[in-house]
Amino acid sequence: MTLTLKTKEVALLLGENGSGKSTLLKVLAGLYPYKGTISCTGNADHSDVTGYVFQNPETQIIGSTVWEDVIFGLENIGLKKEEIKKRAEWVLKVVGLYEFKDKDPFLLSGGQKQKLAIASILAMRPEFLLLDEPTAMLDKYDRTAVKELIKEIIRLQKGIIIATHHAEFFFDIAQRVIVLSRGKIIYDGFIENLPEKFINRF
């Protein structure tokens, strides 16, 4: 499998359950070994190239407060205290959680937990954000809130890949669609050229 990722691009990753969507995202994030070719276009001055956000945000929550959760990864990569504070304040304002910085993250709503999971990764300044079913566990209100956050991230000129079963929900913000079947790419192209057989399938 050969795949090229581009910054400033939003791609939807579609496929039936078991098609390999989560596995591909984990490969892109360096969590799984892979023998194929994956290339990324973008800048080289970021802390990490890719950042992976799990489907269930609670699996990523580590800190006892929202603030502690965001700074955990930043401390681990050895940033100075001033830079950690700067990034944490910035990212919590971007996702709209700054006023909750001292709150227990497990007391947040589902949508807020998803925002926190995204914030913790975004603070690391990856060029590519990999979102694994970011709206799967959310109600209509929280799905919309997360989508609005993704729009804000688009303005930061990140590359974004969204693995989802809610494809049409994201059609208006995506440019590209990648369709998997049994671990193989069966379509990779512009969203406006997506074959009709795929449109209502996922």
Strand content: 15-25%
- N-C termini distance: 22 Å
Mean pLDDT: 91
Unreliable runs: 43-47
> What is the number of strand segments?
8
Strand arrangement, largest sheet? 4-5-6-2-7-8
Radius of gyration from CA coordinates: 17 Å
CATH architecture: 3-Layer(aba) Sandwich
Tally of discrete structural domains: 1
Overall shape: it is globular
Largest sheet: 6 strands, mixed
Protein name: ABC transporter ATP-binding protein
InterPro entries: AAA+_ATPase, ABC_transporter-like_ATP-bd, ABC_transporter-like_CS, ABC_transpr_CbiO/EcfA_su, ECF_ABC_transporter_ATP-bd, P-loop_NTPase
Family: Belongs to the ABC transporter superfamily.
Domain ABC transporter: 1-199
Secondary structure topology:
Elements lengths: L1 E5 L3 E5 L6 H8 L8 E5 L6 E6 L12 H11 L4 H14 L15 H13 L3 E7 L7 H15 L4 E5 L3 H4 L5 E6 L2 E7 L5 H4 L3
Parallel strand pairs: 1-3, 2-6, 2-7, 4-5, 5-6
Antiparallel strand pairs: 7-8
Helix pairs in contact: 2-3, 2-4, 3-4, 4-5
Family: Belongs to the ABC transporter superfamily.
Pfam families: ABC_tran (PF00005)
Keywords: ATP-binding, Nucleotide-binding, Transport
Description:
InterPro entries: AAA+_ATPase, ABC_transporter-like_ATP-bd, ABC_transporter-like_CS, ABC_transpr_CbiO/EcfA_su, ECF_ABC_transporter_ATP-bd, P-loop_NTPase. Keywords: ATP-binding, Nucleotide-binding, Transport. Residues 1-199 form the ABC transporter domain. The protein has 202 residues and is α/β, with parallel strands linked by helices. It has a single domain (2-199), classed as Rossmann fold (3-Layer(aba) Sandwich). A six-stranded mixed beta sheet has the order 4-5-6-2-7-8, sandwiched between helices. The protein has a two-stranded parallel sheet with strand order 1-3. It has seven helices and eight strands.
